[in-house]
Here is the input.
Amino acid sequence: MAAVELAPGVWRIPTAGHFFNSFAFVDAAGAVTLVDAGLRGATRRIEAGLAAIGRRPEDVTRILVTHAHPDHIGSARTVRAHTHAPLAVHDEDASFVRQGRMPPRDATRPLARVASFVQRRQPRCDVDDTFTDGDLLPVAGGLRVLHTPGHTPGHCAFLHEPSGVLITGDAIMNVFGRRRWNFVASCTDYQMSRGTAERLGEADYDVAAFTHGYEIRRGAREAVRAFLRRSARGR
Here is the structure.
């Protein structure tokens, strides 16, 4: 399936099975905001997703990035070139996207230190704009920025207030129907990422959409809060 409707005007676009997802928000005039650009080579699947919802690359007027990791910005440069849309990311991740540098890894974690040594570079892309915590972006009626640092310094989730759809970014994954944290080796500060994810339990939403895994449509907020409670007990 090239695109999955989450709510009126809100779509998930799988770019590698259902484990890697981008998202499209379509406003009343037909303009599209894309969230995340997937791995390198994901452009074809993103454009197929747009076609499935009756949109074309030239309908994209904005590209937002949850954070500066290669599975989220790998195709950003190509998508930006195909759509001519400006790209925005949180201010604290902007330099990593512009320079093609990986955000720092958690120095307290041996696996993260190894990953940092092995992978220092990633695809680069120009950044046209930045956002910060609490900003209400003019996306299909209003997309709220929830800064949840730790996975990267500028990692963000997005809450689409009109539809009640939350995009968690990599703060929480939903792999094979189970909520889980992201990989320790991929985080700038693993403990911080777990702490800031508490914000996702406090927000008000009906659908939880994950950049990795399937969405939760029923009891989404309680499912996320239950996961956070279990994780807190296990610390």
User: Anything to note?
Assistant: The chain has one domain: 4-120+127-233. The radius of gyration is 16 Å. The chain has a mean pLDDT of 93.
